[in-house]
Amino acid sequence: MTNKIEVSWKGNMLFESVAPEGSVLIDADEAVGGQGKGLRPKALMLTSLAGCTSMDVISLLKKMRAEVADFKVEVIANLTDEHPKFYDKVHVVYYFYGSDFKKDKIEKSVKLSVERYCGVMEMFRKFSEITTEIKYIEQ
């Protein structure tokens, strides 16, 4: 399967990325001519990672009948100092909100996403050391 996107210049350092499913604006830091009108390319990479694993986890929890009240993923990444700068360490934190958690199913869903299903996670493994953590917030 081949995927295709197009990125078009919108002036200064602003670009629009268009895929069949929608579009997103990409912009640079103000220090290099950006205007803060879009996500930066490296932030998009972290967004892709969080989005991919989040979709896996929610889908798996639904199948396992282990829904939670709310859920979010936070990605904290260390950017190298030398050019080309890349994320060499990435920590993914899964936050589950609710009560009476089915922790065994939650942990299994995260493990399946991390180890088997999330293709973006697999791509990150090629250049980053990835760690994960699960946090439960009782409501």
UniProtKB/TrEMBL annotation:
A Pfam family annotated for this UniProt entry: OsmC
The protein's name in its UniProt record: Osmotically inducible protein OsmC
Q: What is the lineage of its organism?
A: Bacteria, Pseudomonadati, Bacteroidota, Flavobacteriia, Flavobacteriales
